[in-house]
Design brief:
Elements (H helix, E strand, L loop, with lengths): L11 E8 L2 E15 L4 E7 L4 E5 L2 E5 L3 H16 L4 E6 L4 H6 L7 E6 L2 H10 L1 H9 L3 E5 L2 H5 L8 E7 L13 H10 E10 L7 H14 L2 E8 L7 E8 L8 H14 L8 H6 L5 H4 L4
Parallel strand pairs: 6-7, 6-9, 7-8, 9-10
Antiparallel strand pairs: 1-2, 2-3, 3-4, 4-5, 10-12, 11-12
Helix pairs in contact: 1-8, 3-4, 6-7
């Protein structure tokens, strides 16, 4: 008797078309969540090449394989140059990958994460435990399900934080409020003197205007601001731009600041998948075509 032939099934895939004329596709091995929250369509799934992935409204937010390239650089770079960060606010960041990195610093007393979509936080607690389990258990961690724009404007937020990290999405849907002059003004008001803020500022290869617009706005509100780079493979387009601003006179990325960060990194014995002092220094080396985007 002839043995039956195995049935060939085409694997499912998820496509992201974030930029005009260009898209990426990921082969999906298992879908873990697929639902509409009050604010957005949330999907979490395992992939063949990129690990576990979350998309919001079909835009990739995090993958377990390369999240460190994003979270490490938004967090450790400013914290190590500052040297005495005690209170951190995270705008968005419901997957808690950034919170997990901030809490690695022993001198931190409080990390406040403010995300408008509580369902994202619930699903990420359940499905991204390899990344965020320690953060959820840490007593220094406070989670506020609220509008971060409104939270920043509260009287209780004035001059409160040493570092504010804006893990904001692209300027669409509920993320629109996290761009523009009013937002930056509120960030400035919530920072302590000498405090830093860091922002994701898009992929310059496909979104060059984000750098020019963001840095022009930051210059209106902060005495010092600038740009540095990371590479997150899943954020298609090569380099990812991260911008920074300081409520004080100390710029990030100076030779003295880089040396200070290297010494602090060694003393703290931080364990990072992406960040190290050499990467810190290299992040401020901008290719000529990116440098031209800086106003």
């Amino acid at each position: 008797m002839a043995r039956p032939k195995p049935v060939k099934t085409k694997p499912s895939s998820v496509s992201e078309r974030l930029h005009k004329g260009y898209a990426q596709s990921m082969e999906v091995s298992r879908v873990l969540a697929d639902e509409q929250s009050k604010y957005q369509h949330i999907r979490i799934f395992d992939t063949v090449a990129n690990g576990r992935v979350m998309t919001l409204d079909d835009i990739v937010q995090i993958t377990s394989r390369d999240e460190s390239a994003y979270a490490d650089m938004l967090t450790h770079l400013p914290m190590l140059e500052h040297g005495k960060v005690e209170r951190v606010m995270i705008v968005g960041g419901g997957d808690l990958s950034i919170a997990d990195e901030a809490l690695k610093h022993r001198h931190v007393k409080e990390v406040v994460l403010v995300d408008i979509d509580g369902r994202v936080i619930e699903l990420c607690k359940k499905l991204f435990g390899d990344i965020n389990a320690k953060a959820f258990k840490d007593k220094r961690m406070t989670i506020e399900v609220a509008d971060a724009f409104e939270y920043l404007g509260r009287k209780s937020s004035r001059n409160r934080f040493d570092l504010i990290i804006a893990d904001r999405p692209d300027p669409v849907g509920p993320g629109k409020a996290l761009f523009g002059e009013t937002f930056y003004d509120r960030i400035k008001g919530a920072l302590k003197p000498g405090g830093y803020a860091t922002f994701q500022t898009g992929v310059p290869f496909y979104q060059p205007w984000e750098i020019t617009e963001a840095l022009a706005d930051l210059k209106r509100f902060f005495p010092r601001s600038g740009l540095y780079l990371t590479v997150v493979p899943t954020y298609i387009g090569g380099f990812m731009a991260l911008s920074w601003a300081c409520k004080g006179s100390k710029a990030l990325g100076t030779p003295a600041g880089i040396r200070k960060a290297a010494a602090a990194f060694k003393k703290a014995k931080l364990k990072c998948d992406y960040y190290n002092p050499a990467v810190h220094a290299a992040a401020f080396a901008l290719p000529n075509w990116i440098q031209k985007l800086v106003p």
